Amino acid sequence: MDTALIYCSEYLQHDTGQHPENAARHRAIASALAGDDALQARVQKVSPQPASDEDIERCHDPRLLRHLQSLCERGIPFVDLDTVICPASFRVAKLAAGAAVAAVDLVFTKEAQNAFAFVRPPGHHATSDRAMGFCLFNNAAVGARYAQAKYGAERVLIIDWDVHHGNGTQDIFYNDPSVFYFSTHQYPYYPGTGSKFETGDGEGIGTTLNIPLSAGTAAAAHREAFSEALRVIERDFPPDLIVLSAGFDSQRGDPLGGLLLEDKDFVEMTKEVMEMADRNCEGRVISLLEGGYNLQTLGETVRAHVKALAS
Question: Were 175 and a residue from 82, 202, 242, 271 both cysteine, which residue would form a disulfide, CB within 3.0 to 4.6 Å?
C-alpha cells in the first residue's frame, strides 16, 4: 500500500478572484509536488467524484445544499463577506467533499495506506446549516460520517491543526460520542470559538478537546501540547480512522495567522499521527487541506507533509 494523492483540475474553477483562498494556492502545491520525482514515484494519483447529496446530508441540512446551489446558479458572488463563490462553486464544493469520500474508500479497502486530498474550497468552518469562513461543505465531517455509514467505523478522530478553530466540525459532532474533535488553534481569533471549556455536550461530553494558543506561541510549546493531547486521546479514544484537517496557516509567516510552526514541525506532527494510526487502526489516515495562504512557502510545506505520509 502507498499514499494516495487526491486532486482534480476542476478545483481551479472555484473562482474567488483576489480572495486569500484562491486558485494560486493549488497551483503552488501542485508545482511543489510535481517537482519531487522521488515523491511522485511513491504516490498514486486519484481523481475524485462529486459527493452525493446523501453523503453531504449526513452532516448538512438539505436546505443548505439548495441555498448554495441557488446562489451559484443565480451568479451571486458571495455567501457572506468572507466567503466568495462563482457559478462553478457548488459543483467544486461537492468535488472537495467527494475527495474525502474517495480517501475513506481507499484506506478502508487497503488500496492505499493513507491519503492526502488537496481540495478547495476548504471545509472546517462549515456548520450543519451554514457556509462560512471560506468553506461551503465540511469535507472532514463528510468523510467521517461516510466512514461510519459505509465501513462501520465506531470511533473517528478528527485532528485539526489549522490556525483557525474548526467551529463547523465541532458543531456537527458536539453531541456525538463516536467522533472525537481535537483542535490546536490561535485564540482569541476568528471565528471566536474554541476555548478550553468547550468539551462537548450531552452524550458527547469529553469528545471535544480544544487547545487554544496565543499568537506567538513558541513552536516547541505548541508541539508539546499537541503530543500530550494525542497521548491522552489515544488512551481514552483509540480511533478506527484518523481524519486530519490539515491547515498550514499555523506556519510561521502566514498572512492570516500568528503561530510559529515550521515545515519540520508539520513533519513530526504527521509522523506522530501516523504512529498513532499504526497502533490503533491499521494506519488509516486521511488528510484534507484546509488553510494556508503564504504562496511563497505553502507548496514546500505541503510537500513535506505528503513526503512524511509516504515515508
Answer: 202
Specify whether 305 is catalytic.
no
Q: What per-residue confidence (pLDDT) applies to 1?
A: 65
Sheet (strand 285-289) strand order: 43-46, 3-6, 114-117, 285-289, 241-246, 156-160, 179-186, 208-213
Q: Judge whether residue 160 has pLDDT over 70.
A: yes
For the stretch 180-189, pLDDT in tens is 999 999 999 9
What's the number of domains the chain is made of? 1
Rounded to the nearest integer, the mean pLDDT of the chain is 98
Mean pLDDT of 1-7: 92
What is the torsion angle, in degrees rounded to the nearest 10, for the CA atoms of residue 174, residue 175, residue 177 and residue 183?
Answer: 10
Question: Where in the sequence is the domain holding 120, given as residue range(s)?
Answer: 3-309
pTM value?
0.98
52 class by beta-carbon count within 10 Å (0-12 exposed, 13-18 middle, 19+ buried): middle
The CATH number assigned to the domain holding 46 equals: 3.40.800.20
Amino acid at 122: P
